[in-house]
Write a structure and sequence with these properties.
InterPro entries: YeaO-like
Organism: Streptomyces nodosus
Strand order of the largest sheet: 1-4-2-3
Number of domains: 1
Order of helices and strands: EEHEHHHEH
Protein name: DUF488 family protein
Distance between the termini: 7 Å
Pfam family, one: DUF488-N3i
């Protein structure tokens, strides 16, 4: 059985209960120094493409289509290695997917958490 997967904002205080902390944004969080993030990894290659990220613009009414397009990207060769690595991490540790997005429920981290949970 796989580990628990949760999503949080990278700006939130870290917790020992987070387990492995992985930033899944393509762009480094604005205003945050690397030592403040308390990351185990920054896996930018699993993030949505720049074109998809810009199209989505974090507009909740576009989330269903964003989710569909992002899941398709995760199957593409450009994301496959990073997605496989993340899947491996999720199989062995408690995993916290971090994002700078204010609306975590409508983010790539939420899509990834759901996708990883189904892959376990």
């Amino acid at each position: 059985m796989g580990a628990q997967i949760i999503c949080r904002r990278v700006y939130d205080e870290s917790s020992p209960r987070d387990g492995r902390r992985v930033l899944v944004d393509r762009v480094w969080p604005r205003g945050m120094r690397k030592e403040e993030a308390h990351l185990d990894e920054w896996l930018r290659d699993v993030a949505p493409s720049t074109a998809l990220r810009r199209w989505y613009g974090h507009e909740p009414d576009r989330f269903a289509e964003f989710r569909r397009r992002y899941l398709a990207e995760l199957r593409d060769a450009g994301h496959r290695e990073a997605a496989g690595h993340l899947r491996e991490l999720a199989a062995h540790d408690r995993l916290t997917l971090l994002t700078a997005t204010k609306d975590v429920d409508h983010s790539q981290a939420a899509v990834l958490a759901e996708w990883l949970s189904k892959k376990q």
